[in-house]
Amino acid sequence: MAARLTDRQKKKIIADYMAVESYNAVAKMNGVSKDTVKRIIQNCENFAQKAQQKKEDNTADILAYMESQRGMVCEIIGKGLTVLNDEEKLKEATPAQITTAIGTLIDKWTAISGGPADTAKEDDLSRSLRELGKELESDE
Fold first, then answer.
1. CA distance 25 to 92
2. How far apart are CA 16 and CA 30, in angstroms?
3. What are the boundaries of each domain within the chain?
4. Distance CA 11, CA 63 (A)
5. pLDDT at residue 75 above 80?
6. Scanning 1, 58, 77, 113, which has the fewest C-beta atoms within 10 Å of its C-beta?
7. What's the predicted TM-score (pTM) here?
8. Sign of CA dihedral 85, 90, 94, 95
9. Backbone angles phi, psi at 70, to 5 degrees
10. Region 18-29 average pLDDT
11. What does each C-alpha distance from 55 to 10, 19, 121, 122 come to in angstroms?
12. Cα separations (Å) of 78 from 72, 73, 94, 140?
């Protein structure tokens, strides 16, 4: 008969699953079967709410960090745009690389400047990028 897991072990399994979101990976990390992990997760009250809260906390932490590094982020974006506009780099780039870069720029620019994608809810990152764009325009 298998040993029963302690509450501490169950909490660790839940925390690990929230981090990696894989029954197999968590099972290997904790030396239990994937079925055990699945059963613990399914029996956990409010798991979906806890997982959503954890994702929101992680997103907020990342945005706060990026905000604290605003100057460096603007510098990196500026360097990236300079590289994207370099004739030699463009000659060396594959069509797939160029179209990916253009698509990304168009998507973000549309989100920032209020194009057709304006009907979608603006997320924190897009709002932050829009504010950075306004600051850059005012510096010119």
1. 40
2. 9
3. 7-44, 70-139
4. 28
5. yes
6. 1
7. 0.44
8. positive
9. -50, -45
10. 92
11. 20, 9, 18, 18
12. 10, 9, 22, 13
